Structure formats: C-alpha cells, structure tokens
C-alpha cells in the first residue's frame, strides 16, 4: 500500500512528548532530542489553522505535510472542551511542549482530504531522476558487502527476484513488525534466535525485534447522550454531508467519524506532573449505532444493547 498505515489510520497528528525524545537521546541516540527533532517536525509541516502566538514557534508553514485542527466536530466535542475546563484542563495545542490539557485534534488534511506521507513526499517528486517507485514489490533481503555494510536489497517483483543497489545508503522503513523481520532475514539480529531459524548471522545484534511496544486502547466506556448533541453515523454520512463535502470540502466527512476532542491527563508518577500518561479520546458515536449496516456481524447482535437507553 503506497503511504503505508498512514493511508488507513485515524489521522491523529501527535508528535509525542518532548521528554520521550530527550530520554532517547540520553540513552545514547544523538540527534533524537526534542530540540533537534522539533526542527524537522517544523520543516515537515504546513500548518493551516490559526495559531496562538505562544504556540506559533512550534509549527512550520510551507512544508510538504499539511496539518490542521479538526474543522468539524459533533456538538458534544465542543462541550467536552468546556467540560475539560471545569476539571481544570485548559485547552492546549498538544503539538507544543505543553502536554497536559484538553485539545481539539490536529489532522494531516488538505482541502478536506487525508494527506499520507506518500501524498506529501513521494507523489510530488515522482518525476525526479533519482527516484523510482517500484510497486507490487516485496523486499526479501538486505544485501550486505564483505564489511557488513548495507549496499542494496533483493526483492520479488512479478514472481522474479530482482536486486537494487544504493549509491549512498539503504533506508528500511517497512513498519514496526516488518523492519525487524527484514533485518533478521538478512542475518542481522540475535545470533541465538537466527541460529534456531537456520539463518546465518552476519551481524549479532540482540536488540533487533525486541522491545516492541503498542499503545493500549481501552474502548467501552459508553453512555447515552441527549439526541440534540448526539450524532449518528447515518446522519453524518447522509446526502447533506456528502453534498457539503463535495461542494465545499467541509463538514463531518472531513474527519474520522465522531472524533474531535481529547484530553491528555496524568494519573501516575507524580514526579513528572507535566508528562501525560493517558489520552482520553472522545468519539461521539457507538459501534452499534449504524444498526449493523457498516459494522461487523458480531456487533449486529448487540445493537439494541448499545442504542436503547437503560432504565435505571
Ligand atoms: C487502525 C490504525 C489507526 C491508527 N491511528 C493513528 C493515529 O490516529 N495517529 C497516529 O499517529 N498513528 C496512528 N496509527 C499508527 C500509525 O499509522 C503508524 O505508526 C505509522 O503509520 C507507521 O508508519 P511506518 O512508516 O513506520 O510503517 P507503515 O505505515 O506500516 O509502513 C510500512 C510500509 O512498508 C511496506 N512493507 C512492509 N514490508 C515490506 C517489504 N518486505 N517489502 C516492501 N514493502 C514492505 C508496507 O506495505 C507499508 O506500506 C494507527 C494505526 C492503525 C493500524
């Protein structure tokens, strides 16, 4: 898939915590500290929403990746920002170094449409002489020279094994699972593991494929809200929304269904009060709300339990 997971994800443009970058740098990774990566975040960005003066130094304008605040929110999203204030959570721009607070999400969006990394970087440069996009190809091995320096890749294209060589360097960006897999298939990994798989070790590098982390998502805190501030999938995706999107590139079809507001909060370690450890994402729709039209069969059985208000 051209553009990778960025072509199907939830589009939340979130840079992460300054402290995490600084920790990585301190662990022995020069160039990964917040101050350095911020330069590149800014360079990448074409920020298109109004900015508060205090937030402006953290954003870039004119870069390849357009980013803007969610332009349409269900009414309950706006109320969530107000509710945050009552809890002491000021509205913040979370892509700055202020991290605790309520916020309206920022999305990689241009003229109401998703912008993937391929849209931003690859497609506009396809005519360059030093770029070739080879689709329907699977890299199966990194080619190393006698000094174990990566000089190219072996890949399968139309059932044929082919090779491509690099003049300067090989960059592997096959995602969190396939990048380490490819390294291991190329003999770069923990010798013990490679031996078990019958792969000859070229570089004994025990960290490869370790420390895999995912962000845990807990879904299921659902409640019924007043119909006036609710939004159902059917009303969001109806003809008027379609027309609005087609004519003005505005409205509910410019955002992932139901989302808009979130809170970054701190519940754990009191020693780091400015570092959030939980993000609460408000989605004002339920899995069963489409009466099973869009969602999977297993949800159909529970539609009534999701949509019928509980008598208490
Ligand atoms: C449903 C979902 C929602 C998400 N929502 C968000 C969100 O809202 N905000 C956010 O920040 N993140 C989100 N993420 C995570 C985010 O999309 C990923 O972390 C990010 O896209 C990873 O980018 P990547 O380039 O490292 O890898 P990927 O996007 O996985 O790209 C890897 C690419 O390499 C290709 N590839 C793999 N192996 C080979 C091979 N051997 N040869 C050739 N090509 C290969 C793959 O086909 C793919 O195109 C979400 C992820 C999912 C799945």
TrEMBL record:
Cofactor needs: FAD
Glucose-methanol-choline oxidoreductase N-terminal domain location: 2-216
Alphabetized GO MF terms: flavin adenine dinucleotide binding; oxidoreductase activity, acting on CH-OH group of donors
Superkingdom of the organism of origin: Eukaryota
InterPro entries in alphabetical order: FAD/NAD-bd_sf (IPR036188), GMC_OxRdtase (IPR012132), GMC_OxRdtase_N (IPR000172)
Keyword line: FAD, Flavoprotein
Family: Belongs to the GMC oxidoreductase family.
Protein name, as recorded: Glucose dehydrogenase [FAD, quinone]-like
Organism listed in the record: Hyalella azteca
Lineage: Eukaryota, Metazoa, Ecdysozoa, Arthropoda, Crustacea
């Amino acid at each position: 898939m051209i553009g990778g997971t960025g072509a199907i994800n939830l589009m939340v443009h979130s840079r992460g915590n300054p402290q995490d970058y600084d920790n990585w740098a301190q662990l022995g990774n020069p160039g990964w500290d917040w101050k350095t990566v911020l330069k590149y975040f800014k360079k990448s960005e074409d920020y298109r929403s109004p900015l508060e003066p205090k937030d402006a130094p953290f954003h870039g304008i004119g870069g390849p990746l357009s980013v803007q605040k969610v332009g349409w929110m269900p009414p309950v999203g706006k109320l969530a920002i107000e509710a945050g204030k009552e809890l002491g959570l000021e509205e913040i721009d979370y892509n700055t170094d202020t991290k605790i607070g309520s916020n309206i999400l920022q999305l990689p969006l241009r003229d109401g449409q998703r912008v993937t990394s391929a849209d931003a970087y690859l497609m506009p440069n396809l005519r360059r002489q030093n770029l070739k996009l080879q689709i329907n190809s699977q890299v199966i091995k990194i080619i190393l020279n006698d000094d174990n320096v990566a000089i190219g890749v072996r890949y399968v294209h139309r059932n044929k094994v082919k090779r491509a060589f690099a003049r300067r360097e090989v960059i592997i960006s096959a995602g969190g699972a396939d990048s380490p897999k490819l390294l291991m298939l190329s003999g770069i990994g923990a010798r013990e593991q490679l031996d078990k798989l019958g792969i000859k070790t070229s570089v004994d590098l025990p960290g490869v494929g370790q420390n895999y982390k995912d962000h845990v998502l807990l879904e299921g805190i659902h409640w019924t809200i007043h119909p006036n501030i609710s939004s159902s999938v059917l009303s969001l995706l109806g003809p008027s929304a379609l027309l609005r999107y087609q004519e003005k590139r505005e409205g509910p079809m410019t955002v992932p269904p139901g989302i808009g507001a979130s809170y970054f909060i701190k519940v754990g370690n009191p020693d780091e009060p400015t570092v959030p450890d939980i993000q609460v994402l408000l989605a004002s729709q339920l899995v069963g709300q489409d009466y099973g039209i869009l969602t999977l069969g297993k949800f159909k059985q529970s539609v009534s339990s999701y949509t019928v208000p509980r008598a208490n």
